[in-house]
Prior knowledge:
Mean pLDDT: 90
Radius of gyration: 18 Å
Structural class: mainly alpha
Number of strands: 2
Strand content: under 5%
Amino acid sequence: MAGFRSLARQVRDPRCDLALRRYSLRKCLERFAPYGHRATWDHLCSRAGFGPEDRSPDPARLVAALDELEEARSVWLAYEDAFAERRRKEKHDGLRRPGSVDDWHRLTWGGCGVAWCDNPRVHPHEPLAEVLRRLIAALEREPGSVCPVCSGDRLTWKYDLAHEPSSGPVCTDCGIVVPRPVLTPEALAGSRRGRLLVSV
Length: 200
């Protein structure tokens, strides 16, 4: 099975058939898809200016989408390296029990579903790397009461999510499932009061 970097080389290789280049970009999302596969694909297509169903997009647009994905991946990999180093130090110092951020991180290892968007058509509009920087900054500070990505305060608890955890606070402005560790208990309770009982 090809890794992210070898797939990225195929996307950039002008000697490759255009269908293979598009396919390779889609396969990259099996290795790294912050919003989930379908929502990340929709995001990259809209930002790069080609349709999700376009079978022969401009190669330059494919490469632009890949550039955005690679930048976001480098942000996430740097975070994972720092996270692993912190956990090694904590274990060395005798802190064996992981915290709530660690529990959340375990579900997102590799960067798939970091900022899960259950509705693939509703996702942040900012570049992926910027979204991940905001999310990481929120994970590294005290919990707040708003979405760490768009600062929206309309958080609604949703059940039957297509990702783990299967329920959680969803930002109705940008569409991400907000990681519980970045929200105060009051914000979590508020999102439950305005919960959605069915999937949207």
